[in-house]
Amino acid sequence: MPAVRCIDLDGCPTRRGGGAVQRIAVADRRASLLAAALRVIARDGVARASTRVIAAEAGMPTASFHYVFASHAAMLEELVAGILEAQAAAVAEAVGEAGTLHEFAGGALQGWLDRAAAEPAVEIALQDVVAFSRASPDLHHLAATVYEHYAASVAGFVAAAEERFGVRWTVPSADVARFVLVLTDGVAARWLVDRDEAAARRALALGTRALLALVQEQRP
């Protein structure tokens, strides 16, 4: 008989009906609950993603949620942090081999869309968390966290372009970074509504051209 995982918080017997019984490690519970939260939020929204619903989605008792996370807000914070980390890694991978500024800029923008298109539920969940947190005094910091992360990531992208390709802009670097942030934010909002990936890619290509038009000079 195959092993049965025990998710009860109380002590689990070592045997049950002749089959081995084992507890699920906290790290595994956390991963399962975060994945379940992502599915529920993308499908039903944050407002309906209660601890009970998330635990049920993960196939666990509600007590398991409270054992792993200090609160519902703490779970959302961890979920958002994981999404942002994965997004940053995807963009970094997309520009890793870029040999020209055009490849670097286009790769960063298209790389972001590649990930969003591959896992739309992630982008849907993140946008819903941001919208929900804006209206919640207890969670308002989450929206700020997301945009602070985006601002820092884009500023890093602009700085990397300057260092890697010897770029000087016709406007302050901070304005370039804000332009990129507004561009991706707008494309994301429209794409989530119409799911027209081809149109989104054309918009990002135009954005890349507009970004390159801000270059005053670059190293040959």
UniProtKB/TrEMBL annotation:
Pfam families: TetR_N. It comes from the Bacteria. GO terms for molecular function: DNA-binding transcription factor activity; transcription cis-regulatory region binding. Transmembrane segments: none annotated. Keywords: DNA-binding, Transcription, Transcription regulation. Residues 50-69 bind DNA. Residues 27-87 form the HTH tetR-type domain. Gene3D superfamilies: Tetracycline Repressor, domain 2 (1.10.357.10). This is TetR/AcrR family transcriptional regulator. It comes from Amnibacterium setariae.
